[in-house]
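Side project, low priority. Logging it here so it doesn't get lost.
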Amino acid sequence: MSRPSPIRNPDASSPEVMTRRAWWLVALNFLIPGSAQLLAGNRVLGKIGIWATLFAAGVIILGLILNWLWPATIISLLTNPIVLTVGQVMLVCYCLLWFVLTFDTLRLVRLVRLGSVARWAVAAIALVGLVAGVGVAGYGASLAGTARSSIQKIFDNQSKIEPPADGRYNILLLGGDAGPDRMGLRPDSISVASIDAATGKLVMIGIPRNMELIRFVEDSPLYGPFPNGYDCGDKCLISYLYTYAQEHPELYPEAEKNGSQPGIEAMRDAVVGVLGLKLQYFVLIDMQGFADLIDSLGGITLEVAERTPLAAAIPGAKPFAWVEKGTQHLDGQTALWYSRSRFESSDYSRMGRQRDVQEAILRQFTPANVILRFQSIAEAGTQVVKTDIPATMLGPLGDLALKARKLEVTRLELVPKEFDPAHPDYDKIAAAIEAAFNPATETPKPED
């Protein structure tokens, strides 16, 4: 007579044998879901569990390889709504499968055949493993759903893909006035992020909001009312063009349909006139909600050049706080005040602080940080961002952003003393942009 199989046909009369078997089955179910059924239960169910587990492991390994070799590809996949939907459904199905496999494993264990102490311990460990496994898969499904929802809300999938212009992507960045009811009124921050399409090298160009004598190309709708430029002195500052276009929507009748606004399109035309660059896309950020985005990242760390007072720009105002010189970690509200405070400060100093904050955010967007804080980042993003960047461009631009994080950012501020915002010298601006894009390299001296 052959001895009974200790796993499939154990000696049920021995609590010791049954306890050892129980621990093996529970461990196998946690490590390789389906293996307990393959050894001691329904082999069909076991094969389904093992193949599902191997498929999940293969997807993870493939993802790690793609992220290492072709990060743009993995970013494109993880920002594709269809891929995210399929991934979410598969993760939910895997959660249900693991749930079934765990309770079937407890059935196979035959808890009544174990000792009283082992009975409770085995059941508790099995349930802990269930919560851990299902929790991870469930969290992944939740992240996929959040990502899909955020991408569909923020990124306009109807926008066309724009190729680089002269090897660069130029993205208009607008910071709108604080408050949900004033988003975008007279942009508080105007800049262009110009990214080398090959290397990811980033040049940030800052334009003063009080720049005058803005010129327009002939095919701009603003060329008609202002053929000689926006030339009525300090009553015609570049930031006022947003409000002007919003009050004259007939200038840009297709703006709303294309996911933009007349004011944004006016700012785009104005910046094109100033810089002479083609702007492929825009990003408009509500400065008040900007604080929520920073908080979702866990704050930002930056080098503060000088002790900076935080106060409103109203008569009699006094600083309610200071940001000290040196390395400082700022929460969202403090970072917002730091970038916008006008107390004993010029607009030009404020522009420099805004660029400091923008760079700090770029550095803070690490893959690990985004994964750990994804839910809050996505929620903040849907509240503060408006853009015409299509979802299909998230992969290429995301790859360039990862490259940019490793390189020094070049900053060009069109401010005094180098530039005069009241009387802009466009030839000088063009030369400065060319120098920023293609910095001169020193010729090595010959060795003696």
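Brief comment: The longest strand covers residues 168-176.
Revisit when time allows.
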